Amino acid sequence: MHEKRPGVRRLTVYAGVALTIQILVLGIWIIRFYILGDQSAPMLGIDFAIFWSAAKVAVEHGAASVFSPEWMLPMERALGLSDYSAWPYPPTFLLVVLPLGQLPFGAALILYSVLGLLVYGAVLLRICRGIDRGYLSLLLAFPGAAIAIGLGQNSLFTLAAAGAALALLEVEAALAGVCIAVLAIKPQFGILFPLALICGRHWKVFGVSALCTAVFVGASVVLLGQDAWRAFAAFLPQFGTLAVEQGGNMMWPGMPTAFALGRSIGLSVNGAYLLHGLVAAPAVLAMAFLWAQRARFELRAASFILATLLLQPYVMFYDLAWLILPMAFLLRDGNRLPLSPLEWIVFALAWVAPAQALLSAYLHQYLNVLPIVMIALLVMLVRRHLAMTAVAPAYQP
């Protein structure tokens, strides 16, 4: 039986109000832009417009052309985008979105959004088994999902791949490896999986994921050509310099990272990277410690997500949809060791982080506190592991 906790009914009401507001905002967004034709309203799926444009350009002019403003800008303007938006993704992601370019934009956007919600929901249903039902409303109303849908970003797909890989890690190693390979669409978000798998001694998953990733990349070379990868390799340093290192108030307020914080307060590029390293290195070490110690699955899984986010100098506010995973794992771990009042405060700060980061991005003022929140969450995970191992042997899966 689940332990009764105070305030659950009140939390459910608050979560219901938050979810209703999000649905209303998205509905008004859709009506104003797509039905009333109000071009001053935000465009629902604005980032997906870039994905769809890239798919069309790749079909008509070749995959390497997606990295050229000459071909991308006219396609984007035809959809209502006023300024050129670069395509900074590898050919593996282009291969995935290529079929959507065969559909009209509206139909492609609907299909893409529905698929994103389906995989997101399916993974959450799996992870949320055993969580007190009273807390499920908190996860359902988490604003990160609404932000990802509103922008048409790929965050729901990448978090679903990572979440599925973690959920299947100890029960279906081969399928877990396939899910890890899916992260080749945004490879920086899978970069810590090899370390985690080695520390956790998940050799079969490691082998399957390496093989499937190689097949995925190889398929993109065969189907899209080597020129696409050459163009991507040439474009990526330019994007890193302009959007990340020199992004200014147009980019840094929407990047909830230690690097962006450093640049926003006037640090040089090298100084900001140093600050970022001082945050990222302990985060990765904490994750490696929990995996090597075979800590409880929930703690290991949550630490992987947090370390992955803290490691990236370039994470945007829409990527914070990933925070649903450590929050769900923490609620699961709460069945063994109830969360303290201080832990609930950190949990609440993580819950509002996507909305707060969105506000920071649109105000063009760096207001993010997320690096501190994620560090606090990691400290919580290590403390929870040590608290249990002080009275019982380390968890053995």
UniProtKB/TrEMBL annotation:
<keyword id="KW-1003">Cell membrane</keyword>
<dbReference type="GO" id="GO:0016758">
    <property type="term" value="F:hexosyltransferase activity"/>
</dbReference>
<keyword id="KW-0812">Transmembrane</keyword>
<dbReference type="GO" id="GO:0005886">
    <property type="term" value="C:plasma membrane"/>
</dbReference>
<feature type="transmembrane region" description="Helical">
    <location>
        <begin position="12"/>
        <end position="35"/>
    </location>
</feature>
<keyword id="KW-1133">Transmembrane helix</keyword>
<feature type="transmembrane region" description="Helical">
    <location>
        <begin position="370"/>
        <end position="395"/>
    </location>
</feature>
<dbReference type="InterPro" id="IPR018584">
    <property type="entry name" value="GT87"/>
</dbReference>
<protein>
    <recommendedName>
        <fullName>DUF2029 domain-containing protein</fullName>
    </recommendedName>
</protein>
<feature type="transmembrane region" description="Helical">
    <location>
        <begin position="159"/>
        <end position="185"/>
    </location>
</feature>
<feature type="transmembrane region" description="Helical">
    <location>
        <begin position="205"/>
        <end position="225"/>
    </location>
</feature>
<feature type="transmembrane region" description="Helical">
    <location>
        <begin position="273"/>
        <end position="292"/>
    </location>
</feature>
<feature type="transmembrane region" description="Helical">
    <location>
        <begin position="344"/>
        <end position="363"/>
    </location>
</feature>
<keyword id="KW-0614">Plasmid</keyword>
<dbReference type="Pfam" id="PF09594">
    <property type="entry name" value="GT87"/>
</dbReference>
<keyword id="KW-0472">Membrane</keyword>
<feature type="transmembrane region" description="Helical">
    <location>
        <begin position="103"/>
        <end position="123"/>
    </location>
</feature>
<feature type="transmembrane region" description="Helical">
    <location>
        <begin position="304"/>
        <end position="324"/>
    </location>
</feature>
<keyword id="KW-0808">Transferase</keyword>
<comment type="similarity">
    <text>Belongs to the glycosyltransferase 87 family.</text>
</comment>
<feature type="transmembrane region" description="Helical">
    <location>
        <begin position="135"/>
        <end position="153"/>
    </location>
</feature>
